[in-house]
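Morning F.,

Quick status update on the modeling queue. The single chain you submitted on Monday has been processed. Sequence for confirmation:
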Amino acid sequence: MTIRSNSILAAACISLGVFGVPALADGVPAPRNAKPSVAAHRTAPMTVAARKPNDSGVTLRYQLEGTPQAGKATAVVLQFDGVSNPDGATVRLAADAGLTLSGASTLALPAGKRTSATVSVVSQGEGLAYLNVFIQQGDATSAISIPIQTGAVRPALKASGDLKSTPDGDSIISMPAK
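Structure tokens below.
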């Protein structure tokens, strides 16, 4: 057998192994005889929050139930996984200005278990605000901001500086020093 045929054989074995295992979104296999529920098809998948290498080690998945509207409550489902510290982890929730948080602002997460919580937020007006989630496990802390977009108003950048042209025809932005 040549090296080329060994690599083709290895690629074939790997692809059979990968494609033979069903892909799971949350890592929990469904029972073989379970039928997918109708509700599972209507809801959007949970968003996995970005993590940094030096964070708390706790994974956060979240989902907004419904479209946020000014003055109306929107449920935010939070799912925590990966608590390895025997003492567990703690979560503190805080809302940006223009967003009101209803429900518990602190949570305790037990070690080794997936924990879910649902909180309610109310936007005071149209625009973008954040639900801030601070997760502490041991000496490490994660800070995650969940965007709550109400209405179609998008944040605009502040104008900073004047657009000027150089003698060569290049455009530059002249900004004052602070």
